[in-house]
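Model it.
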Amino acid sequence: MAKTSGKAKKETDKKRNYSRYKSWFWTIFAIGISSIVLLFLLASWGVFGTMPTFEELENPETNLATEIFSSDGETLGKYYNENRTPVKYDDLPQHLVEALVATEDERFYEHSGIDARGTLRAAVFLGERGGASTISQQLAKQLFTQDVSQSFVGRVLQKFKEWIIATRLERQYTKEEIITMYLNKYDFIYQAVGVRSAAKIYFDKEPKDLRPEESAVLVGMLVNSAYYNPVRRPELVEQRRNTVLGQMEKNDYITEEEKDSLQQIPMKITFTPQGHDEGIATYFRVYLQGFMKDWIEKNPKPDGSEYNIYRDGLKIYTSIDSRMQEYAEEAVQMHIANLQKEFNKQNKNNKTAPFRDISEEEIDKLITDAMRRSERWRILKDKGLSNDEIRKSFDTPTKMEIFSWKGNIDTTMTPRDSIYYYKSFFQAGMMSMTPQTGEVKAWVGGTNFKHFKYDHVKQGKRQVGSTFKPFVYATAIDQLHLSPCDTLPKSLHTIEAGKHGNQNDWTPKNSGGKDDDYVGMVSLKRGLAESINTVTARLIDRTGPKPVIDLVGKLGIDTKNIPEVPSIALGTADLSVFEMVSAYSTFVNEGVYVKPVIVTRIEDKNGTILYQHVPETRDVLSKEAAYVTLNLLEGVTQYGSGTRLRGDWAVNDSYYKSVVTGYPYNFHREEIPIAGKTGTTQNQSDGWFIGMVPNLSTGVWVGAEDRAVHFGSIRYGQGAAMALPIWGIYMKKVYNDKDLNIAKGAFPRPEVVTIQTDCQEFGRSDEDDVDRLPDELDF
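Modeled.
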């Protein structure tokens, strides 16, 4: 009995212990579950940190880039803190969405924000067989986890928050919206925030144009874009791409044959950075930035706050045509690179290179002034260094990257020598616009924005030389009803002191300087074509300088720094390319000035129109006066300094072989009427050409930063050699692009023209003069 009793007692104890363990297990399990539930509740109540409100979930705060569009629908650039331009779900290719789901969240369409299977698997295997984060959780992390905690406990608490936010996002948005938000938010590095920026930067495409293997590259980057970097680790990224394609096959989005075929395609990246220094129209985009700053100050949001071009996702529609902009930049690059090569060649025996015609003391002052304006001087001054210490630093060899026409060069030189080096480079300013609408179609402010920030279209003003003369002729035609056929003496003409504001006698000379340059009579048409100074002096003596200044003021030129003296007739004023092109365009537009347009429309991120351009116009000249002036300017390209644009007569000239690219132009006068004017300032410091066809006006300036940097002879330094070739190269390109519809017909003639423009006596001399090289016609 005792033995039986003992055995029963043991059985009873065993059952009691089992019950106790079972009770403990369920108690611990309940506590665990309760703890997890409590943690979720505490997290949702904001105990572990502020949770997003309903409004924040409805409109998650993001930095949206402002996008700049060309008139032909291309993206010119962006303003941003984060280069994010959102894309709609409908614009995402299906294979991109499938690659994302197959790789990042296979059961995305089955769960409500948290994948229980994935979470359990990650917990059991400690994440070694895949992560637990769903796309919704990853989006929650991107949107609301600013700084990832470095501690285990802190990260666990953040995970709880992300789980809760993920479930709320799932309730708030559709699956398609969550995918779209996720792809719009992810940072693909290289300032590619969001899939649209990434597609443009890595493949130079819109997302909808991506191929399946390209989509797989971008999805492969989602795990760690810094590690899977297509630019620095292409082989690793290709392996990752193939893994993504394998996941797509595993999840039945593609067949095995398609997977094998796509994996065999070599990965090809078209790296197209979108930094502020890259892309096209860089100088224009900086000017546009100033335009937007002024517009924002005058146009607040409905709540009174200001728009922010770096985060509000505005859309700016501009007048720039991306094709014409590219042609303009190519023309500047092509000619200036060749011009620079010849300039450097001619400077080999110049002891004061790159300067000419100034003393050592003047050169030292130029260099010192440049040092004082430099960023280096400012930084060292802020650090408390004395002027002598700063000057000494400019003579210390330093490693630096410098610009060259063959590509950037890593070298060592003193900062002082680098100033000399950069002073030697020619720059250019170029603008092209439609006269009838004022729309600016191309804007090239310099040769390389990264190294030369100064804009030579609007910001820079230089002496305009003979390109000012048409304003004198137009005034004379308007006031005195003169005809292009009227003749004036070529002889010297003096405007005495006291007349027209002159302090001293003024007797301008013609550029040739020979005795026969002052003999005989010449028509107004040939006077302008050959840029004869004595003829222009006679005209301004008859009109007076004030009416000329009044006219150019109506043509959009700032006249406050133009003195009321006769010498302005020869182009002593400093004006911008922007002013000159818009003024000349009035002659093409039948005497009506149209203020240049750069922005046609501004929209907010939702497409609401905030600004719509309204043209600003004014009548300046009669149709007849404008047409007659245009007729005079056609003479410049028929038998004056602009004849280089006609035919192929110059192709064998040694000058063209050494300096000028893009010849011959073959703009035959019967096919393409061209009105224009060259200009050259003293010592060949500035070269100009303004040229017009019926629906396009384009102006070009070429020169160096300092006027003392110039060619030694007018053969190379005149406007017809420095600036006109850029116009010719550009216009060949735009005429070859038939989609641009650049007009070839004659300039429109008013119904009533009482001034005689058909001067038959010019017939023979036109032909005689076409075949001679007009080296000294455009002072």
